[in-house]
Specification:
The protein is mainly beta. It is 0% helix and 35% strand. A hairpin with a 2-residue loop joins strand 9 and strand 10.
Length: 168
C-alpha cells in the first residue's frame, strides 16, 4: 500500500458486465476513475520487486534466498483476481475458516507442466477475494538451481509470473 496505489474489492454486481466505472472517494471528495474491463479472472501473485512470491515454506517460515524451499516440499502463496466465488457471502466478508469457493480451476505451472495444488481458495482470516494457494514443488531440482519461475493460472488467464527460492 502506498500513496500511488489503490486497493479495492470488486463487487459481485460486476459479474456479467463488460466494463465498470470506478469512483475513488477521498477526504477531499469523489474522483471519477477510469472505466475498467471486467474479466472472469485476472490472477496476480503478491511478490517483491524481483518477482519473488511473498511465500511460506512448508515449515511456515518465509521463503527467501537464505531460507529456500526444499525439493518436493509444499509452498504457500497469496493472490488476487481469482474471479467469482460461490460462497454467497457479502462483499468484504472476513473468511473464518478455509473455504474452497473458487468457481474456476486453479493451476500452478512450471513451464507448461502443472504442479500438484493441495489447496486453492479463500485465505483464512482475510477478506473474501484474497486467495491462498498451497502447492508441491517438483523434486529434484537441477544442480545449481536456486530459483524457479512459475505461473498461476485461474480459468483461462495467467498471472505475470513469479519465482520461488529453492534449495540447490
Amino acid at each position: 500500500m502506498g500513496p500511488n496505489q489503490v486497493n479495492c474489492i470488486v463487487p459481485i454486481e460486476t459479474q456479467g458486465q463488460d466494463t465498470v466505472a470506478v469512483q475513488i472517494i477521498t477526504p477531499q471528495g469523489t474522483v471519477a476513475g477510469p472505466d475498467l474491463l471486467v474479466a472472469d479472472s485476472q490472477p496476480e501473485v503478491f511478490k517483491d520487486s524481483q518477482r519473488f512470491a511473498l511465500a511460506l515454506n512448508q515449515d511456515q517460515t518465509v521463503n527467501t534466498a537464505l531460507n529456500p524451499a526444499a525439493p518436493g516440499s509444499i509452498v504457500s502463496i497469496w493472490a488476487t483476481g481469482g474471479g467469482l466465488d460461490n460462497s454467497g457471502a457479502p462483499d468484504g466478508t472476513i473468511v473464518k475458516g478455509p473455504y474452497q469457493n473458487l468457481t474456476l480451476p486453479v493451476s500452478v505451472l512450471l513451464r507448461d507442466a502443472s504442479l500438484e495444488v493441495l489447496y486453492a481458495g479463500d485465505a483464512p482470516g482475510d477478506v473474501i477475494g484474497l486467495m491462498q494457494i498451497n502447492f508441491r514443488l517438483p523434486a529434484p531440482f537441477s544442480l545449481g538451481v536456486t530459483a524457479i519461475g512459475l505461473e498461476l493460472q485461474i480459468g483461462a488467464n495467467t498471472d505475470h509470473g513469479f519465482q520461488i527460492h529453492v534449495h540447490p
